[in-house]
Amino acid sequence: MLSRDQLKHLDAVFNPQSIAVVGANDQPEKVGYNLLQSILEGGFQGRVYPVHPRHREILGLPVFQSLAVIGKTVDLAVIALNERSTLEAVQDCLRLGIKGAVCIAGGYGEIGPAGQELEARLQDLARDGGLILIGPNTLGMINTHAALYSTFYPLRLPRGGVSFITQSGGVGLALLQKCLDEGLGISKWIGVGNRAVLEFADYLQYLAEDETTTVIGVFLEGTEDARNLVQTAARTLLRKPVVIYKVGGSGAVEDSALTHTGTLAGSHRVYMDIFRQFEIPTAGSLGELVAAVKALSLAPLPAGGGVGILTHTAGPAIIMQDELARRGRFLPRYAPETIQKVKEVIGPNPPVVLRNPLDVAGLGFLPPVYGRIAEIAIGDPGIDILAAVYCLHRNWRFPTEELLRIKERSDKPLVACYISTLSGAARDVEMMSRHGVPLYITAEEAAWGIHHLLAFRSARIGAMGREG
Amino acid sequence: MLSRDQLKHLDAVFNPQSIAVVGANDQPEKVGYNLLQSILEGGFQGRVYPVHPRHREILGLPVFQSLAVIGKTVDLAVIALNERSTLEAVQDCLRLGIKGAVCIAGGYGEIGPAGQELEARLQDLARDGGLILIGPNTLGMINTHAALYSTFYPLRLPRGGVSFITQSGGVGLALLQKCLDEGLGISKWIGVGNRAVLEFADYLQYLAEDETTTVIGVFLEGTEDARNLVQTAARTLLRKPVVIYKVGGSGAVEDSALTHTGTLAGSHRVYMDIFRQFEIPTAGSLGELVAAVKALSLAPLPAGGGVGILTHTAGPAIIMQDELARRGRFLPRYAPETIQKVKEVIGPNPPVVLRNPLDVAGLGFLPPVYGRIAEIAIGDPGIDILAAVYCLHRNWRFPTEELLRIKERSDKPLVACYISTLSGAARDVEMMSRHGVPLYITAEEAAWGIHHLLAFRSARIGAMGREG
Prior knowledge:
By secondary structure, chain A is α/β, with parallel strands linked by helices. Chain A is built from 16 helices and 19 strands.
């Protein structure tokens, strides 16, 4: 566990006043160019010092020949040099009292014995010098709330509460791209790389306390420190949601994971068993991870486990019911009074069977009628969360206004599934997100979102029980 | 099995010269309005006759008081009346020699005994009269190649080779929306509804012979006629790919399926066992079904099962490898000569481990270099299909030109995974699709696409073996 001082130190590295980009470069295909550009275009408000022995000016900024000649405080050094020169730059950081470094280069533990030796030296340097070192072998890190984009993939992301800890830069980018498609706001993004100094558990501990982080998603290939990860995740669940996507269900990717970040991934089944034992919510795919953090970052928690589904088209609701049941979640019946009230809206003998999922078919597709039925359904005493399914139609709008009015009047969470293209629902996704309603365009994702609201609720209760 | 005459008859219904919309309406919230609008806006080139006892003109067309007063040949009647009036309209069709009807209304077998009796009468009428009857309780059907959009969800779809048979209108719409997002061309779309007259097997038999259909996707809740479905699917696999998404893995949705289209869904495990026995390719989700038909409709079939992965970022390739391995597909090694040739491009001692997935990291991300390595990888004698993974970057383009040049020179299929938002890759998706390269924005989907190319290849070999 990190000490209070270390946590404060780590927070300062995520919120620097000044950054040196060591190995800044003027060639757009170089990491050192992209890092600098990413930081500048990201809108970072502090001072930025490009460092390179020969260049004079890059992207309009004067270049310093070395870290030493900057002559001012530097809070964070982002090092875009090769694996050997990175070691020298880290030594420079220590000499100059620089407290944080992001080391981009690969060529360490993941390539075998020679690299392992280099990595051990890097680790010793950082530990002995009390340096916060992220990486090596990482795409970098992001803190949108500090307009800090220290990766070599220049991006701009909407600010929000979702933070990611990822063992893969590429998967981490895929998560961010999917969040962009979903209109989801991001807080921190950390590419852990080879974790020479800081482990998953350390980052989790930090994000657990980070005020701008409301939910944490983790992409995990493997770690030797699984026990620490799980225990920290369980503690974190007392404060905020954590969802882990552990790749490797097939048992066939251990070699690839080893050569990726130098980690023996270990048996997937063992991970799953220990996650289950500590009730750590897990996702089975990247799509499920994003669906989960979407629901958890937007919706309030349900007070109980009763899921009601309302739809005007049976199939997508059946898929939702199936996905929920695969995760051990079954739908309660609506109360007879609820069904009675629905009949008062759609007629006493509707040519549909009223149960849960509540499928009102052609009788309930007009938004005002749909809204009235949704309000009845969410009012059912056995229903703690309502899923509203609706299909895009050329001649009428989505029932967004109606659902948002219900949301205003009810404490129960609402999740929407609008069958649509991504662009067809974009405006509604934005409106719903702003008011705490996660809106998905597929039934699977909507079911995953609901499952994870319930999973966090149970996990937190479990964690509280263990804490006593 | 349908006779040759019945098949010809069914084909005529999918390619009508004239359509009557019975129950056409001038109110935009009515099914009868939306059906007529859908047919007109879809660009249908034949004659269209709205039928309604009181209206005079709808959407600029003169309205006929009854089917009888049209006084001209009608090839297809689309009936948007309630469950009882539908029966009368079907009797009118038979009297007037109309050979095809789409019956939209629900209120039949799916609502219990009273509805079952009505449905039996509908069935008897159609069978005795030799009427092709689609439905009842269906969203309708589409044949893009006849500009025929006889559903009450007006849409325009790009023409192509993908046909769907769906037991749910809503899920069927979700499939089409996802295909729109993926830039995928559609041929036929059939909402089977309660299947009073025509079964899954009948539609499969028809699409197997349909020249504009190159691949068939099926969404299945359940059918009493599973044996016929499976045997027909197995025969169809001799001609073209079929992929079935059977919902219900949880075992919890039988009741919902029963009240949806009046079908006892039956045990999911029994379905899976019989699908496996006949080697019918199955999808586990709507996303997998679309990923499958995308690959199968665009790419040539691989000559063998050797999958090569090329990437400049490890994580997504590990996800692909994991998804493939979960389906029993493992990656072969690249030949030593291949690795040697790659080293000639990126240097003799690269700080990366060269295996499969082949991760060239920062050494191979520039499109021209990436293209050279891709060409080496696809040339490996043990590789039958190459998956190329690439991440969207602000400062360089995707290696689309390079990959398409390779595609021109190689018979082996190529599948691309560009980590990106949907809009970020839209132009490349379109270019790649035009040249037979399925391009996905997630690693999971790319893996599913590859799996289904290989699954169809094996299934076809198996089906040929059984046929002798």
